[in-house]
Amino acid sequence: MDSQTTKLAEAGRAEVKTSPVANAMIRVEELHKYYELGEARVHALRGVSLDIRIGDFVAIMGASGSGKSTFMNILGCLDKPTSGKYLLEGVDVSKHDKKSLALIRNQKIGFVFQGFNLLARTTAQENTELPTLYTKISRPEREKRAADSLAMVGLAERAHHFPSQMSGGQQQRVAIARALVNRPSILLADEPTGNLDSRTAVEIMEIFQQLNDAGLTIVLVTHEHDIAEYAKRVLVFRDGKIRKDDSVANRPRANEVLKTLPTLED
């Protein structure tokens, strides 16, 4: 295991030991979410209850309208449930106001999205530093954390390149580095391989598996069954409920799978 990966992941776990909910990074209890669409009332989540343990790696699947995106938005403190509880590291965040939720997002949650969301005129180093601008971290520490995160995803030599000078896979690595820079407790990834070719997708899953091996809790949304198999556990949503919750048997190791795949030419 890469020492830099271990250091970053362990930093994200530093406060977990004090959680009053033993061994649970996330606990949700009877979550319901309603949306008002004109005169219609949509019941997006219907009494979802779930524990995600410290160091777990969970893939979430489901068709459009199944409730998985609503669930991820609540886990990411981007939305609040209509009723029910959401405990993050033992703290009920379901009743927090917008300012408190923003602080939690910045300090405890790292986000990785399908579209990379990098600033075009900003270098990899500067893109990675962005979340630290909303903290009290000093400039030298910001720069060090960003450099460490880029090194961990194999992009130390690309720190001063712009997104237009990088491949899609490299841009997604920058996005992962950015998600890690504040040393979060949990990483939420929404279709992180959706815009990538098959080999690059496995390379991204290799990074996720390395981070998870070092102890970082990861929740991943994907439509791809082969990508979900790299997780330890797969949840399937349908009609606002969890219909399946299975451990992954014979889980593939991405580093071994990469040995069997051809190298793609630029």
Mean pLDDT: 89
Strand arrangement, largest sheet? 6-7-8-3-9-10
The counted number of beta strands is 10
Q: What is the third-level CATH name, the topology?
A: Rossmann fold
Pattern of helices and strands: HEEEHEEHEHHHEHEHEEH
Low-confidence stretches: 13-21
Number of domains: 1
Q: What gross morphology would you assign?
A: globular
Going by CATH, what is the homologous superfamily? P-loop containing nucleotide triphosphate hydrolases
Protein model, in words:
- The protein is α/β, with parallel strands linked by helices.
- It has a single domain, classed as Rossmann fold, CATH 3.40.50.300.
- Helices cover 33% and strands 26% of the residues.
- The chain has helices at residues 3-12, 68-75, 98-108, 124-129, 139-152, 168-180, 198-213, 225-228, 254-258, and strands at 24-37, 40-53, 57-62, 83-88, 91-92, 109-113, 186-190, 217-221, 233-238, 241-247.
- A six-stranded mixed sheet has the order 6-7-8-3-9-10, sandwiched between helices.
- A hairpin with a 2-residue loop joins strand 4 and strand 5.
- The chain is globular and about 50 Å long.
- Mean pLDDT is 89; it is low at 13-21.
Keywords:
266 residues, Rossmann fold, 4-stranded antiparallel β-sheet, single chain, alpha/beta, globular, 26% strand, 6-stranded mixed β-sheet
Give a brief rundown of this model.
This protein has helices spanning 3-12, 68-75, 98-108, 124-129, 139-152, 168-180, 198-213, 225-228, 254-258; strands at 24-37, 40-53, 57-62, 83-88, 91-92, 109-113, 186-190, 217-221, 233-238, 241-247.
